[in-house]
Amino acid sequence: MTETPTGAPQGALADPAYVMAAVDLLGAVAYGELAAFERLADDAKLAPTLADRVALSGMAAGEFSHVQLLTARIEALGADPYAAMEPFRAPLENFHARTQPSDWFEGLVKAYVGDGMAADFYREVAAYLDAETRETVTASLADTGRSAFVVDRVRGAIAEDHRLGGRLALWGRRIMGEALVQAQTVAAEREAMTALLAGGVDRPGLDLAAVGRMFARLTERHADRMAELGLDA
Amino acid sequence: MTETPTGAPQGALADPAYVMAAVDLLGAVAYGELAAFERLADDAKLAPTLADRVALSGMAAGEFSHVQLLTARIEALGADPYAAMEPFRAPLENFHARTQPSDWFEGLVKAYVGDGMAADFYREVAAYLDAETRETVTASLADTGRSAFVVDRVRGAIAEDHRLGGRLALWGRRIMGEALVQAQTVAAEREAMTALLAGGVDRPGLDLAAVGRMFARLTERHADRMAELGLDA
């Protein structure tokens, strides 16, 4: 019952329930990165300049390299990466369908806020994994220079047009809300992953109060990100 | 007047007309790779399985790494990569708009036949470039494992459904036709690039008969590619 867990011991890999949970998490992150790749590649077409379009396409390609990292780890754990990714298709596609950006800036805010929130959540959960799986997850969540680009473009635009700031602040809150809805769906359906958070006989886990504190941390980091963009959370 | 040219001498880089032509060619290839990235990322969504979707997305990401190679060389030649790419936006977008695949297999055939033809053409032209620019172009045209994947999928599908083979053969011819129309538009508008092919006082070039033979080679290679896929050219 600690909030700075040392992760699952190496021996956890002999426990089928643990492996199933780790594969589940890797599958979720992998599908998330694949979907992020597709959305960024799509949203790049909304770019106002060719330079911005190339920049966002480059970030999309960066996301894809993470997918390969994750599928390799899933295979190393003896599972089929595509079967592992499949259960997360519906919630992630639902999330993206409900948060279609209507312009370039909404796309940027979505990429920054949505992927940032997902990365925070997966990093929290990764703390309960064995060292090698944890490293794969955290490496695959590394910021590929996207943040600085998005912050620069969004701050520049709202400095010129204050009404844009109001609209994007609303948009950021909607992204947050939709993400929470989908996360709850996943949590309700994927028992293996919630079991990972709950811990095991020889593995640390979270009690309900700790889950509450985790959500408080995620909300706080979301507010920090909105502030970075110059938006009210 | 040779068809196995040794390329432009290093000294050509001091000739502004040569540099302009080289930048023009690099810009064309760069926009082509950017557009190929976007189309592959789009077409991946048509994949029948998650494994195929990941495979095609991986090829898209591979194309993008070529864009970075090319823009770096354009900058090294003292030009703005986005300005260099811009003139090729309209012809390439027109080509893609006129050749929207209606299913997964049309997307695969388009990727194989269309990009193969473009690569052959750029390789022919690259022969008239200085060594370093030529290497950038040929490296950026390298097959990133896409061919084997496409050949496998298309041959497998037409073995099971012969009518698909007939439809895809027609589709391949249409890709060829549309590509030629756009190539002629580019040739008519971009004098710098045609000047490159025509050569200069100290640079080898092509006469009209040699241009004809070049087109014969391109057509022959197109027929080879169709045969690889198991389709009539």
Would you mind describing this structure in some detail?
The structure is a homodimer of 233-residue chains. Chain A has helices at residues 16-43, 50-76, 81-85, 89-98, 104-126, 131-140, 146-160, 162-189, 191-198, 208-228. Chain A is an all-alpha fold. Chain A has a single domain, classed as Ferritin, core subunit, four-helix bundle (Ferritin). In chain A, helix 2 packs antiparallel against helix 6 and helix 5 packs antiparallel against helix 10 (208-228). The longest helix of chain A is centred in the first third of the chain and has 28 residues, at 16-43. Chain A is globular, with a radius of gyration of 18 Å. Chains A, B: It comes from Nocardioides yefusunii. Chains A, B: InterPro entries: Ferritin-like (IPR012347), Ferritin-like_SF (IPR009078), Ferritin_actino (IPR059125). Chains A, B: Residues 18-200 form the Ferritin-like domain. Chains A, B: This is Ferritin-like fold-containing protein.
Using only C-alpha atoms, the radius of gyration of chain A works out to 18 Å
What is the CATH class designation of chain A? Mainly Alpha
In one word, what is the shape of chain A? globular
What is the CATH superfamily label of chain A?
Answer: Ferritin, core subunit, four-helix bundle
> End-to-end distance of chain A, in Å?
31 Å
Strand content of chain A: under 5%
The biggest sheet of chain A amounts to: none
Topology as H/E string of chain A? HHHHHHHHHH
Largest interface: A-B, 26 and 26 residues
Which fold does the CATH topology of chain A refer to? Ferritin
> Given the helix and strand composition of chain A, which structural class is it?
mainly alpha
- The poorly predicted ranges of chain A are none
Average pLDDT over all residues of chain A: 88
Domain Ferritin-like (chains A, B): 18-200
InterPro entries (chains A, B): Ferritin-like, Ferritin-like_SF, Ferritin_actino
Protein name (chains A, B): Ferritin-like fold-containing protein
